[in-house]
Amino acid sequence: MQLLYFGWVKQRIGIDKETVALPAHVTDVRGLIGWLNARGPKYQDALKNLGSLRVAVNQELTDLDAKLRDGDEVALFPPMTGG
Amino acid sequence: MPTIRVQSEDFDVGAELARLTAGKTNVGGLGCFVGLVRDMAANEKIAAMTLEHYPGMTERAIEKIVAEACARWPLDDVTVIHRYGRLEPGARIVLVATTSSHREACLASVHFLIDWLKTKAPFWKLEDTASGAKWVAAREEDDKAAERWKAG
């Protein structure tokens, strides 16, 4: 699974993308975030406030309950500030 | 056919508007919004702003919302150009322009599109200030502005 990070999520984690093999018990975005948090303090710092995280699966904006499949592109980022 | 471009280069507003109406006699109005980089943010002077985006998703998301605008209003054509990269105060960031037979459709659709771009297009602004680089926080007013266009 391809993970992408933007904005301060990217800055705090320290990388803009990575490829991960998800364990079978991770089935949705919420589970993915929990699993990432266990990878260290940088992830915890970036992902601690779920209310200010936005998520896209395969380039479509969705929410924490979105189901995940192997091969998905998942992006985690702050609220958007375009325009 | 809508024009959607996500680019680092500047754009020529006059040329873009001229292109929207070139050779057409059915268009009665052209609505347009141009967003610029301001030199002040939260009482602090900014030297520049860097816009980051999500290549691929950005274009797809804008295409979807342009299609939504075309479904809501009788538009003849739409242009959305959004820049990314480092921009200094005074620089153009975004152009939204629509044409229609009548003014109401173009003015309302331009407002709808820019409100949506502010909160739903995957762009993030990093401001370069005297006290360091700061990510721009999402504003509640912008969310409210986008909310009012919700269908129903």
Describe the structure concisely.
By secondary structure, chain A is α+β, with helices and mostly antiparallel strands. In chain A, 28% of the residues lie in helices and 23% in strands.
Task: Walk me through the structure.
The complex is a heterodimer of chains A (83) and B (152). With 83 residues, chain A is an alpha+beta fold. Helix content of chain A is 28%, strand content 23%. Chain A has a five-stranded mixed β-sheet. The longest helix of chain A is centred in the middle third of the chain and has 9 residues, at 29-37. Chain A starts with a strand and ends in a 6-residue tail after the last strand. The mean pLDDT of chain A is 95. Chain B is an alpha+beta fold and 152 residues long. Helices cover 34% and strands 38% of the residues of chain B. Chain B contains four helices and nine strands; from the N terminus they run βαβββαβββαββα. In chain B, the strands form two sheets. In chain B, strands 3, 4, 6, 8 and 9 form a five-stranded antiparallel β-sheet that branches. In chain B, strands 1-5-7-2 form a four-stranded mixed β-sheet, with helices on both faces. In chain B, a hairpin with a 2-residue loop joins strand 3 and strand 4 (44-53). The relative contact order of chain B is 0.24. The model of chain B has no long low-confidence stretch (mean pLDDT 94). The interface between A and B is medium-sized, with 17 and 29 residues.
